[in-house]
Amino acid sequence: MEQDDVDQEMEDRWLGSRLRQARRKRGMSIRELGGKAALSTGMVSQIERGLSTPSLRSLRLLANALEVPVSYFFADTPASKKERRHIVRSHQRKRLTVPSTGVVQEIISPEGPGSIEIYEIQLEPAATSDGEMYSHDGEKAGLVLSGTLGLRLEDEDYLLEPGDSFRFPSTMPHRMSNPTSAKVHLIWVVLGQIRSIDDGK
């Protein structure tokens, strides 16, 4: 097994344990969580056991159902509890890789309760955020750092170049993609009523 596969397997197991921890703290069964997140019981079970890597859409649905920020599921890095409430060092970012979509996200906003999440996102060539349009409460904004970003908002398609920025209500069905052969890097901001549970840290 190659190192990248080993790393992904470890990330999947870690994410699964975080999902199980959050679900149990909410006193929910796998079936209840699946129903609330509009996902099958089997899918939730596979994610919890580290046997399946969730799509970004599935992760957002699970986070909303558990009332935690998506960053709750990102791989953890050591930092003092006091510092990480306000500061994220570049080498301490939490990362989430979804191989099936070609999307890598790093959370660059400090952890804890709040209404803003900021990500640095990398899209591999031909990558897409998900197979279908999705929407949820809140607002989104971003800035393209490099490459060409494809952004679909409802039934309109846009191509954004480095330096271009955007903002739209999250209730608007949306999807991002990379239609080129070069990687895309962007800053992605999510604004909404984000809550966090006490994870013992």
The largest pleated sheet is described as: 6 strands, antiparallel
So what's the CATH class of the largest domain? Mainly Beta
Q: End-to-end distance, in Å?
A: 33 Å
For the CA atoms, what is the radius of gyration?
16 Å
- Which parts are unreliable, with pLDDT below 50 for 5 consecutive residues or more? 194-201
Order of helices and strands: HHHHEEEEEEEEE
CATH superfamily of the largest domain: Jelly Rolls
- What's the arrangement of strands in the largest beta sheet? 1-2-3-9-4-7
Question: How many beta-strand segments?
Answer: 9
Present the secondary structure layout.
Blueprint: H1 3-25, H2 30-37, H3 41-48, H4 56-66, E1 94-98, E2 103-107, E3 116-123, E4 139-146, E5 149-153, E6 156-160, E7 165-169, E8 174-177, E9 184-191
Helix pairs in contact: 2-3, 2-4
Summarize this structure briefly.
By secondary structure, the protein is an alpha+beta fold.
Structure characterization notes:
The structure is a single chain. The protein has 201 residues and is of the alpha+beta class. It is built from 4 helices and 9 strands, in the order ααααβββββββββ. A hairpin with a 4-residue loop joins strand 1 and strand 2. The longest helix has 23 residues, at 3-25.
